[in-house]
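Lab channel / #folding
Pinned by the channel admin:
"Please post every new chain as: sequence first, then the structure tokens as a reply. Keep commentary short and put observations after the output so the thread stays searchable."

First post following the new format, from NK:
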Amino acid sequence: MKNFKKYLSPVVILLLMILFSSCKNEPILEPEIILAKEEISFDKESGTSILAIKTNVAWTAASSQSWCTLSPANGEAGTKQITVAVTENTTNAAREASISITAGSLTKQVKVTQELTNTLTIAQKEYNLESAATEIIVNIESVLPYTSAIQSDWISLKSTSVDNKTLTFSIAENTSTVSREGAVTFTSGTLSETIKVRQAAKTIGIPADNTGMGSDALVLAKKMNIGWNVGNSLEATGSEIAWGNPKITKTLIDAVKAAGFNAVRIPCAWDSYIENQTTCKIKDSWLARVKEVVDYCVDNNMYAILNIHWDGGWLEENPTYAKQAEVNAKQKALWEQIAVYFRNYDEHLLFAGTNEVHAGYGTPTAENNTVQQSYNQTFVDAVRSTGGRNAYRNLIIQAYNTNIDHAVNFLKIATDKIANRLMVEVHYYDPWDFCGDSGSGIYLWGAEFAQYGKVSTWGQESYVKTQFAKMKTSFVDKGYPVILGEYGAIRRSSITGDALAHHLDSRAFYYQYVTEQAKKYGMVPFYWDNGGTGNNGFALFNRSNGTTFDQQALNGLITGAATGIYPF
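Reply from TO:
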């Protein structure tokens, strides 16, 4: 060392001493990188994410792809946060980038992935088809796999191409008299597209056919001896049994026939049995059930009247200009369907357009009367438009609120394509304090029963003749027989003793008298039976088994029908 030192200058010696001292006290560090995560995922949209790193030496960061940028891209030892930013992925494929973090001789990688931009494209989204069975071809482009959901039972998938870009759907024939609209929805990831399929209604008109339709209105009216209402059953909204009666059976109709009735009025609801309020399509199951009841009658060689009854009031309670267009549209749609469905029946089936259309129980305004009669006209036009036997079918139009005075004062007969095939309908519950007002205390009717108690101050025998004579003069004598669609008086079974006996006697007399006079003045009587066997009911029969419930009332009706002779 002595010899070595002599060759070194003092400065060099000092530097060497400092270096040796440093190496001895501070050894050189191995580089270290700690990453908070090793993978970052983005959806297809532009966005940012934070990557936390920790190093013990200075570091740098770099991205392998230009769409992925870093800030900051370098820094000193310590804990740092790097903002990783990506642009929107506008390609049709997922993409990947790599972030390299380097500290000294050490490098670590962070994987960055970004979802693809999915597409779902359908070439044609609306199809307008005729009523015949056919098929449609749907061309579809989708990056991701897709599913299809058919929302209408008359559309079905027939085939799919190998590449899943072309689908063929079968379209069933539309046998309804109303158009329909269906849909198929395609879904791919978060995307969805829907195609609409509109199909026209079946052409409803066919050539006129008078087979089995030989009787005009007067001839047919004379064939109906006396009629009976199967009330509070098919017109019950929502369910045939909703108003307390059991389902109508053949046994019941057979019993009605055996009792002496040869015609049945079938009050019917339709609105609560519509499967689509936009098209007014009636459920097939409901049409089939109504047909069963009609067949119970017609197969028994009885006449049947099918109507649109109260039906929730959509028609019956809206004779106003505000509702006219809406109601007429539904009236038309329903009657076209009903008429087509029952078109092959012969003259034993009659249609009645409405029931007791009214805005109130007083005299109709010009508006009320005009609108109500437009409902009659829509009914006649709809039925006639279906052709076949409906071109000759006897149809029944109603007076405002089926009131006799309103009929005489306001009713104008609807225009018809064929002569002598229209009838007029009114109802009769006069005097109301005897017939329907349970709290009136008036439980007797007729001059011979006044000795037993109080009878009404109006509506007695002479009044019946006066009212019915008005209908004969105004309509029957002009070729329009009248259907007395409803009449009756409540059975006040809560009365006791002799009073009950007198009540039932006078009630039976009322039935005999009204029925006889109705027929004499050209009115076909249809007794109102609501099935009620309790106090204030109208039942003649036990609906559950067809047995007779009120023989006395029944006798009065049948006797009146036998003594009443039509004037035609």
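NK: The chain has a mean pLDDT of 94.
TO: also worth noting, The radius of gyration is 44 Å.
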